[in-house]
């Protein structure tokens, strides 16, 4: 990855809606070079998707999120990969990480309500043969996600005009 | 025995208004043009402001946390008048690393309540009544009034957009009289964003030397340069002992409200400033000094670099924006201000700024408040978020377009 690509990534990470023209102006680079950088980043699957960070607690249609610690028995030859795949293919699973420490996988599950998440754990996740144990933690409140603070109390408090 | 009439004469006549009690110096100072415009802006809602002369970043958390910790640990006392020794040492290390300036922390550094106090102290200890103080303009709004308050006479030296608002040797030479004593410099410049390079400084040093001037060099924006590194006037050959370097934490470290600054220079000058400082403010607040110490740590310097990169991106955006609108804009190479020309609109700075506020809800500071050479320009701070800048540029563009159609 070159320096321009890194700078483009930084600017898109801040705001995915920025177009190539704006980014080119901000970086003092030719528009064509920025377009090419974005194209390459998308092609190489470094930019995977342009998504929106939503503060669901402000939406009536509130969702429930749980983090589940999963202990598993690795499979011969494939280690954790096969089980991880079986788990992450479920649409209600938002993220899966292989962890160091007391357990193996950290699974983030999102559901309409508590009951739905509980049903997923007991009906889908726990019955998988290789799964030894699960421990479910419901998220009560999100303060910060992906570097974005949800209840920002550090707004712009500057005077309208100052020396 | 004193007669009644004589006693009567000894008592001065009562003054007819409270302002008549004020000293002629205080009475003679006008309120700042920025303040006047501020009142106008405050009366409006939904305004995007480019009028702010301070970073839009909140002080980095680790710096704030250092101040909180100092309070928790009960550090609430006076510090030494010149500032905490460890802070003075950190300042000298930082100035040496960043700008090749070497000072003795024991005798050549004074920690002040903002850079503003340092400038005031320097003028107070240098000026005798009637001395002339040379000030390149457009410049920060305070230099001229505090010169007057110190009993001196401010002499403006005009700088021009065609020279990127650099101080030209010829203009400086033409302004010098036998009463000239002090030259105040502010590069990178508020409000123009102009900078001075080594080559730009060379002829100036010659004039300073020949005319035996003392220089107060306000380098508060020293960190904020884009593409070139700041050259401190004090680092020029032979200029160290003639120069009082004034700086602070407000701009580069996003610490305006902490009021923490410093002055460095010859021990005789700093010693004199220390005397006035100790009789007036005693010392800078201790919690601000602990925060400053943290800001100068390795971690603090990284945060500073991140902020500068962000200003640079916005600088490009704003300069291109003005040029696309059709307003001439020299390329600012320092600070966080663009200073576009509005000459082509036929309006004065004041008229343009006022109408821009009323018709487009964008606030910027009329250039004339910054002195000679400021008329016909607008100071626009780009220390504001990218979406706000983009929206402001769109509004200014529509406003300029609507004037052309009239």
Automatic annotation (TrEMBL), chain A:
It holds the Pfam family AsnC_trans_reg. Gene3D superfamilies: 3.30.70.920, Winged helix-like DNA-binding domain superfamily/Winged helix DNA-binding domain (1.10.10.10). SMART domains: HTH_ASNC. InterPro entries: Dimeric_a/b-barrel, HTH-Siroheme_Decarb, Tscrpt_reg_AsnC-like, Tscrpt_reg_AsnC/Lrp_C, WH-like_DNA-bd_sf, WH_DNA-bd_sf. Residues 70-141 form the Transcription regulator AsnC/Lrp ligand binding domain. PANTHER family: HTH-TYPE TRANSCRIPTIONAL REGULATOR PTR2, TRANSCRIPTIONAL REGULATOR, ASNC FAMILY. This is Lrp/AsnC family transcriptional regulator.
From TrEMBL, chain B:
GO terms for biological process: amino acid metabolic process. Its EC number is 2.6.1.-. It holds the Pfam family Aminotran_1_2. GO terms for molecular function: pyridoxal phosphate binding; transaminase activity. Residues 45-396 form the Aminotransferase class I/classII large domain. Its cofactor is pyridoxal 5'-phosphate. The keyword Nuclease does not apply. Keywords: Aminotransferase, Pyridoxal phosphate, Transferase. Belongs to the class-I pyridoxal-phosphate-dependent aminotransferase family. This is Aminotransferase.
């Amino acid at each position: 990855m070159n320096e321009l690509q890194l700078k483009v990534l930084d600017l898109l990470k801040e705001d995915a809606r920025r177009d190539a023209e704006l980014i080119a102006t901000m970086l003092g680079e030719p528009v064509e070079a920025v377009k090419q950088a974005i194209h390459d980043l998308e092609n190489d699957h470094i930019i995977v998707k342009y998504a929106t960070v939503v503060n669901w607690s402000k939406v009536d249609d509130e969702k429930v999120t749980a983090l589940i610690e999963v202990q598993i028995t690795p499979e011969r030859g494939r280690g954790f990969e096969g089980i991880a795949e079986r788990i992450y293919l479920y649409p209600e699973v938002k993220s899966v990480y292989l962890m160091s420490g007391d357990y193996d996988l950290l699974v983030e599950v999102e559901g309409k309500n508590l009951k739905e998440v509980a049903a997923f754990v007991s009906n889908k996740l726990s019955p998988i043969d290789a799964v030894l144990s699960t421990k479910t933690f419901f998220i009560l409140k999100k303060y910060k996600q992906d570097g974005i603070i949800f209840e920002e109390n550090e707004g712009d408090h500057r005077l309208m005009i100052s020396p | 025995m004193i007669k009644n009439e004589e006693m009567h004469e000894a008592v001065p006549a009562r003054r007819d208004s409270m302002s008549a009690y004020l000293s002629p110096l205080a009475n003679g100072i006008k309120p700042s043009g920025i303040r006047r415009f501020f009142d106008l802006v405050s009366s409006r809602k939904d305004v995007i402001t480019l009028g702010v002369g301070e970073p839009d970043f909140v002080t980095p958390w680790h710096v704030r946390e250092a101040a909180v910790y100092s309070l928790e640990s009960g550090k609430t006392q006076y510090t030494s008048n010149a500032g905490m020794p460890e802070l003075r040492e950190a300042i000298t290390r930082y100035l040496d690393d960043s700008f090749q300036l070497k000072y003795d922390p024991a005798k050549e550094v004074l920690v002040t309540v903002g850079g503003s106090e340092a400038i005031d102290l320097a003028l107070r200890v240098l000026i005798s009544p009637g001395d002339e103080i040379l000030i390149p303009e457009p410049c920060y709004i305070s230099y001229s009034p505090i010169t007057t308050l110190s009993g001196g006479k401010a002499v403006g030296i005009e700088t021009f957009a065609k020279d990127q608002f650099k101080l030209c040797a010829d203009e400086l030479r033409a302004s010098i009289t036998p009463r000239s004593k002090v030259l105040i410099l502010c590069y990178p410049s508020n409000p123009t964003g102009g900078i001075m390079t080594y080559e730009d400084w060379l002829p100036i040093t010659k004039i300073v030397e020949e005319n035996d001037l003392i220089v107060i060099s306000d380098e508060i924006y020293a960190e904020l340069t884009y593409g070139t590194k700041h050259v401190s006037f004090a680092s020029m050959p032979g200029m160290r002992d003639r120069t009082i370097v004034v700086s602070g934490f407000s701009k580069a470290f996003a610490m305006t409200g902490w009021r923490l600054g410093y002055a460095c220079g010859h021990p005789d000058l700093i010693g004199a400033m220390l005397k006035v400082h100790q009789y007036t403010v005693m010392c800078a607040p201790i919690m601000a000094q602990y925060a400053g110490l943290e800001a100068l740590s390795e971690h603090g310097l990284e945060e500073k670099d991140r902020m500068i990169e962000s200003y640079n991106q916005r600088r490009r955006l704003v300069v291109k924006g003005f040029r696309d609108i059709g307003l001439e804009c020299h390329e600012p190479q320092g600070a966080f201000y663009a200073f576009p020309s509005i000459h082509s609109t036929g309006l004065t700075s004041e008229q343009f700024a006022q109408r821009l506020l009323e018709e487009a809800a964008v606030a910027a500071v009329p250039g004339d408040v910054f002195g000679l050479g400021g008329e016909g320009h607008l100071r626009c701070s780009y220390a504001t978020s990218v979406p706000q800048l983009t929206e402001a540029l769109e509004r200014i563009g529509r406003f300029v377009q609507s004037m052309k159609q009239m």
